[in-house]
Specification:
Layout: H1 7-10, E1 13-17, H2 22-32, E2 37-41, H3 64-73, E3 78-82, H4 97-101, H5 103-109, H6 114-126, E4 131-132, H7 135-138, E5 147-148, H8 156-172, E6 180-184, E7 187-191, H9 197-209, E8 221-224, E9 238-239, H10 241-249, E10 254-258, E11 263-264, H11 267-277, E12 280-284
Helix pairs in contact: 9-10, 10-11
Amino acid sequence: MTAAIPAAEKGPLALICGGGSLPLTVADLAAKRGEKVVLFPLHGAANPRDFENRPHQWLHIGQIGRFVRLARAAGCNDVVLIGSVVRPAFWQLRLDLRTVIALPRIALGFRGGDNHLLSFIGRLLEGYGFRMIGAHEVAPEILVPQGSLGHLQPTERDRADIHLGLDYLRAAGPFDIGQAVVVANKRVLAVEAAEGTDAMLARVAEMRASGRVRTPVGTGVVIKAPKPGQDLRFDMPSIGPKTVEGTARAGLAGVAVLAGSTIAAEPAELVKAADRAKIFVSGESGGTAR
């Protein structure tokens, strides 16, 4: 974990906000700790309604110069990237002067998976004197603890699927493909790629409806884990009520993630959704956030 800087020295926290509820959850938790937070929602990712009553500065993806100028003017030293963002095509970037200057390096950043790209963006911002930190360092409450979050627990059959899924994710991690897999009766049914976890689960539901998946309803697990060597300051795996709903529609038994290395969005609603759908959500040992 990055060494803490005394509050008097580090200035406000810059929060670059993608989509979903997590950015504002982190902002609120940081504020409760006495942190001043400066919000930078991203056009095309963050929901404008979420920021109507909060001071903020909008950014287009690629506006490095605008962010550097505004964050420095606000006195920010620490920066957190949090929230969902659909990876843009290179030509979709909104380029300002600083971005144009860094263009050759940015082109190299796009030649790789998401972890490669996000780590590159982090290094780029660090080059302007900012300190990149993980959302879990600002708000450790968002991390999934070890054990079952709701009333239900995985069975021995589920645990066999979980172990296979974690083994697969460790093996596939160096290829920077995805952070999730669906396993049923020790058979891999689906692997997350660029479509994301929700779309992967929708695909499993479609395969079940078409007869391509014939395991009984209530069999199988979606497993999420960070890639080996992944920089957990960026794109840490996350689950939320939508994950639970997708898992239920796919006819699976539950969700398993690495405890301490996965973010729970709206944890209270997540648990309610899991108990309502009669599926388990389990934090497994074997990974810790850094």
